[in-house]
Amino acid sequence: MRLPKFRYIEPKSIEEASAFLLDEPGAKILAGGTDILPNMKHRVELPSVVINIKKIPELNTIRQDNGVIRIGALTPLKKVYESPIIAENLSALSSAASSVGSYHHQTMGTIGGNICQQNRCKYFNQSQWWRSARPTCFKAGGEICHVVNKEEVCYSAYSGDVAPALMVLDAIIILQSKDNSREMPLDMLFSGNGKAPLNLKEGELLTEITIPGKAKDGFSTYLKSANRESIDFPIVGTAFWASIKKKEYRVAFTAVDRKPLRGGSVEDFLKGKDLSEEVLEEASQIASKEASPVKTSVYSPSYKRKMMGLLLRSAIQEAMGREK
Ligand SMILES: Cc1cc2nc3c(=O)[nH]c(=O)nc-3n(C[C@H](O)[C@H](O)[C@H](O)COP(=O)(O)OP(=O)(O)OC[C@H]3O[C@@H](n4cnc5c(N)ncnc54)[C@H](O)[C@@H]3O)c2cc1C
Ligand code: SF4
């Protein structure tokens, strides 16, 4: 499959990249390219200009600053899960990064590209030839949705592995443009709009992810159910962070909604409790009702809900008996 025609640019700084984004509304960022290039080959993303930011050196770093872990957006996933700072202290993040696609996706793919990846749907992530059998759907520029018959709403599912892990670690992101920089909790990056999943302002890029030192004081894990272990998006992914001593817990899911989802009800239920078999059973039931997935993949919504409960059950089991 061939790429469509586009203009190619290699900026040397964030400011230069942002200026190109502002000048050319049809431009898109390319980091590792493992998400955007297949989408371009499928003709579901057709940027007029591709801005390759991979050569901006300061964005490929992992460092600790007063206990805060700072990860540049262009850090490859392999470098993330191989980093001793992360492997030893933030298991959820290292598990999530090492579960992405195949080894090649982990080597080429960046943490920023993983977070900012496009939402997925079985009617969207297909070749032009496959899609030509049906009217073009809303996300691909048409006027209907093949999943839910409602005007102008796209239900495509956010399916990144890394975002839920970062969410339970209370990650903050830094967004930068030519003249501005702002930071926000990662949760706020996601719009919940399947057609335009990110709350990025014009000219903005994700430049850094920071994880507070307190995240290291708890146990964390990321569990993924996928069709093939060797290379596949999650059917459901569940991230869990627990401070056993303080009886505080955080839960997040992926691939069940238009954005990665915090498990608010199950967190409220767990708060202040010791982890036990009874607690685990009830938490698993509550977790399976945290989302209302629709049929954007070959897996049924009821199967996904069941997996949300089962994965959280296994995550809590892993946490039981820990000291932190
Ligand atoms: C066969 C296959 C299997 C895959 N399996 C998985 C999987 O299991 N789990 C998973 O999570 N993903 C999976 N992916 C998707 C993809 O490989 C990963 O998400 C990867 O981490 C994307 O990173 P990248 O750097 O290659 O992103 P790119 O493709 O370069 O970019 C992805 C998107 O993010 C935007 N972007 C990139 N960097 C920035 C930035 N700094 N600021 C603002 N916007 C930015 C781009 O414009 C683009 O829209 C798979 C892909 C394929 C083809
Ligand atoms: S949910 Fe509907 S509009 Fe969105 S990608 Fe799927 S078919 Fe298209």
TrEMBL record:
A Gene Ontology molecular function term of the record: FAD binding
Residue runs in coiled coils: none
Gene3D superfamilies given in the database record: 3.30.465.10, CO dehydrogenase flavoprotein, C-terminal domain, Uridine Diphospho-n-acetylenolpyruvylglucosamine Reductase, domain 2
Protein's organism: Candidatus Desulfacyla euxinica
Native organism taxonomy: Bacteria, Deltaproteobacteria, Candidatus Desulfacyla
Highest rank taxon of the organism: Bacteria
Domain FAD-binding PCMH-type: 1-216
Pfam family, one: FAD_binding_5
Name of the protein described by the UniProt record: FAD binding domain-containing protein
